[in-house]
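Give me a protein, keeping tokens residue-aligned:
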Amino acid sequence: MSPRRSDPTARPTLVDIAARLLAEEGPQALSARRIASEVGTSTMALYTHFNGMRGLVRAMVHEGFTRLQHYFTGVEFSDDPVSDLALLGRAYRCNALANPHLYAVMFGGSSLAGFSLDEEDRQYGRYTLAGVAECAARCIEAGRFHAQDAELVAHQMWSAVHGLVVLELGGYLTEPWDADRLLEAQLVGLMVGVGDLRESATGSVAESARRLQEELVPVADDSA
């Protein structure tokens, strides 16, 4: 029997199962019959909730960014905007580690079984950068960063942490240069690169590590 529209868990369950199959078994596993079998429903559920497989692929992308934004909104802005920015970087990594199957789909890391993402889909998640750019602007206004384009700083943060996360998820980062150690150095280096003093940046990044347990761990628990 197809899940009813009133079932609040049906849609995210189908998205999660589809993304997991894609990540673990490749595009050949992404079929309506296989997904329905895994969930324990009929293939009609995919048409009820997504109007078919193409809609499901798009929903995986959108759900991935929804979860990323959930982590970002868990960061409470403080009197130290550089610590806030570093914590947003940590939030990005936390989301990727919590949702690796969706993360691979969001950024085209998984082949989509013949369903390509169009330009609108690829640019969809840019709304999640708004809060990062706002935080970067606060760092500039506070005199911690040089006067510059806050959106450029946000994109620098995105590209830097994204690169680390891709390597981490791929199992490429090992001791002594594991992801934890590299992230600390990367965050400090980024803050210094856009104008902060090394001592101040080091202190703010360390403070963001402490705040991780208070602000982002509850978000992860809520998402589980």
Q: What stands out?
A: The mean pLDDT is 87. The longest helix spans residues 198-223. The domain at 60-221 is CATH 1.10.357.10 (Tetracycline Repressor; domain 2). The radius of gyration is 19 Å.
